[in-house]
Amino acid sequence: MGENRGRARRASSNMPPYRAVLAVDVEKYSRTASAHQHLLSNTVRDALEQAFADSGLEEVWRNASFPQSTGDGYLVGVPTEYLPKLIHPLLPELQDVLDDMQPALASEDRSLRLRLRAAIGLGPLPDTGGEERGDGIGTAMNETHRVLDSPALKKALADSDPDITFLVAGLTRRVYEDAVLGGYVAVKQRLFRGVMVDLPDKDYRAESYVYIPQPSINPDGPAPEDPGPSAARAGTAPDAPDAPAPATPRRRRENAPAGTGPTRINNVRENSGIAVQAGEVHDGVRNSIQNGGIGSIGGDVGTALGEVRGPVNIGGTQHNAAPAPEQDPGEQA
Predict the structure, then answer these.
(1) How far is it, in rounded angstroms, from Cα 148 to Cα 115?
(2) Are 281 and 301 in contact (CB under 8 A)?
(3) Burial level of 249, CB count in 10 A (0-12/13-18/19+)?
(4) Which one of 4, 87, 283, 314 has the fewest CB atoms closer than 10 angstroms to its CB?
(5) Cα–Cα distance between 157 and 267 in angstroms, integer?
(6) Cα(133)–Cα(148) distance, rounded to whole angstroms?
(7) How far is Cα 194 from Cα 210, in angstroms, rounded to an integer?
(8) Confidence of residue 268 (pLDDT cuts 50, 70, 90)
(9) Residues ≥6 apart with Cβ < 8 Å to 136
(10) According to the UniProt record, where is the region Disordered (predicted)?
């Protein structure tokens, strides 16, 4: 009999541990003078370290997986249980730290600013603590950098006020579903805006969610497009609040041209308090007798109040009418 030979079998491999990834990138880094790029690169790391400490995550920063500078940014991996805290409180704290650092940067150069885009991803990533090559390489890392480089995130930062908003962040769909929709993040769901990341040259298209800890509007940016009345009627902007009705300016009666404006006369019945309401009346109402009557009416009729006990002839001399109360000068306006 022939010798029994062992069959080659496929072997499953262990999945790398899940890691939450935070990557940040400096806005307009390549446009910064070469002498200042080193300063910004070091300041990014300092800002992250300070934000982790202020968020109570000092130990997480100290033990972060595959930490590395990317020149114009920085990235770290952390255990997945800390994923919600990467979103809050870390991102708001990072916004505050960058704001606090701005005066020192401006002292170096008035035009120098450190504004960041951040992206958070999640997935299985190799993590040997640096003992082997390839730590942090995987799909989750690729997705995080696709979001970081997305036009939507760059536009969100460009459309904000550079003196107010120093950070915008994008979350992958998995991060949003697991941490935000899962209810683990102390930020209202409505503060995350869904966008599509479409990078044809990278063969990547996926949903992302933008979060801005300190939103603002760039005062030098283009005015928001007006969808027009037809679009509003069609409901193309469901998130826009209902526009308030335009305020009608109060016109001083003495400045209005004679004979203009609508005239409204309410029905008058016995012992009515408010009897006549009119815009402008100039001898146009004569010999109109109401049962009951009103207070005091001159040639021009505005609003007349008073306790009345008799017929009133509008337009001529008034009879049997109680004197009108003296009007406060401030009310005449």
Answers:
(1) 13
(2) yes
(3) exposed
(4) 4
(5) 61
(6) 24
(7) 6
(8) very low
(9) 19, 21, 65, 66, 68, 75, 77, 125, 126, 127
(10) 212-270, 308-333
pTM: 0.66
pLDDT of 143 over the 60 cut: yes
Find residue 76's DSSP bridge partners: 22
Round to whole Å and give the CA distance between 149 and 331. 61
For residue 89, whether the previous peptide bond is cis, meaning omega lies within 30 degrees of 0, is yes
SS (H, E, C) the chain: CCCCCCCCCCCCCCCCCEEEEEEEEECCHHHCCHHHHHHHHHHHHHHHHHHHHHCCCHHHHHCCEEEEECCCEEEEEEEHHHHHHHHCCHHHHHHHHHHHHHHHHHHHCCCCCCCEEEEEEEEECCCCCCCCCCCCCCHHHHHHHHHHCCHHHHHHHHCCCCCCCCEEEEEEHHHHHHHHCCCCCCCCHHHEEEEEEEEHHHCEEEEEEEECCCCCCCCCCCCCCCCHHHHHHHCCCCCCCCCCCCCCCCCCHHHCCCCCCCCCCCCCCCCCCEEEECCCCECCCCCCEECCCCCCCCCECCEEECCCCCCEECCCCCCCCCCCCCCCHHHHC
Domains of the chain: 18-218 (3.30.70.1230), 258-326 (no CATH)
Contact 161, 172 (CB under 8 A): no
Per-residue pLDDT tens digits for 82-91: 999 999 999 9
Q: For the residues 147-151, what does the mean pLDDT come to? A: 96
Give per-residue pLDDT as tens, 44-59. Answer: 999 999 999 999 999 9
CA distance from start to end of the chain: 118
pLDDT of residue 297 exceeding 70: no
The radius of gyration of the chain from alpha carbons, rounded to an integer in Å, stands at 35
Amino acid at 243: A
